[in-house]
Amino acid sequence: MNDDAPRSPAALTRRVALAGLGAGGLGVALGARSARAAQATSTADHPLMGMWLAMANPPRRGVDPQFPVPSLFAADGTVILGFVPAEIGMNGTIQYSGAPMGVWEPYDEQTGHFTAVQVLADMTGKLTGSVTIDGHPKVSDDGLTFIDDFSLVTVTIRDAAGAVVTVVPPGTPGMPVTATKMRVGNPGFPGSESATPTP
After folding, report:
1. Are residues 125 and 177 in the same domain?
2. R_g over Cα of the chain
3. Are residues 94 and 30 part of one domain?
């Protein structure tokens, strides 16, 4: 068949229709793929969503032993970290701290990014400053544990007036934060499959 020969309107209509069906099918497929990607990266469907028991380190004293931190990554994008209410500060005195609270969002399909603020006070109750933690916990393939290896973590320390005093940048050496998803009968402490006593 000669490609330069004029085509009938019926042949052109069939070609346009087939091309339209092909493009439409591709559009539907791409749309479904985009919807799945969006669903996989929403806070409600992300594997980080839920209640975890993390083993963390005081951000200002990395040599201290890890401590348990119940951590809620809620479906609405809020985060609450249950840090200990008192610790020894960098100057050697006791300081009191509130629970870091903030927001989180998906970073990728397995990793979240949270920003949480912790308020600090001295023994008299006077505000001494705050700590902002930007963490990136990555959930395991089975969805039961996560780790934050500090490669993306930023810790920002502010004084009572809100001025930045210190910024600990990503990649600073530190003990990774690990966590286990809490379940009924298993609070998530390392090495304990079930810690619920039998009555």
Report:
1. yes
2. 26
3. no
Asked whether residue 86 falls in the same domain as residue 136, the answer is yes
Task: For residues 115 and 90, give the distance between their C-alpha atoms in angstroms, rounded to a whole number.
Answer: 23
pLDDT(151) > 80: yes
Region 2-21 average pLDDT: 40
Do residues 134 and 104 touch, judged by C-beta distance below 8 A? no
Mean pLDDT of 156-181: 93
Judge contact between 81 and 155, C-beta under 8 A: no
DSSP 40: H
Beta strands in 39-176 (DSSP E): 50-56, 67-73, 78-81, 86-88, 94-97, 101-106, 112-121, 127-135, 138-139, 145-148, 154-159, 164-168
Please tell me the distance from the alpha carbon of residue 170 to that of residue 148, in angstroms, as a whole number. 11
- Amino acid symbol at 10: A
Q: Which domain holds residue 3?
A: 1-40
- Which pTM value belongs to this model? 0.73
Cβ 136 vs Cβ 146: under 8 Å: no
Do 122 and 93 meet the contact criterion of CB atoms below 8 Å apart? yes
Q: Write out pLDDT tens, residues 111-123.
A: 999 999 999 999 8
What H or E segment, with its residue span, contains residue 85?
Answer: none
Say how far apart CA 168 and CA 57 lie, in whole Å: 14
- Write phi, then psi, for 182 (nearest 5 degrees): -75, 140
Nearest to 49 by CA among 116, 139, 127: 139
Contact 139, 155 (CB under 8 A): no
Give 90's pLDDT tier (boundaries 50, 70, 90): low
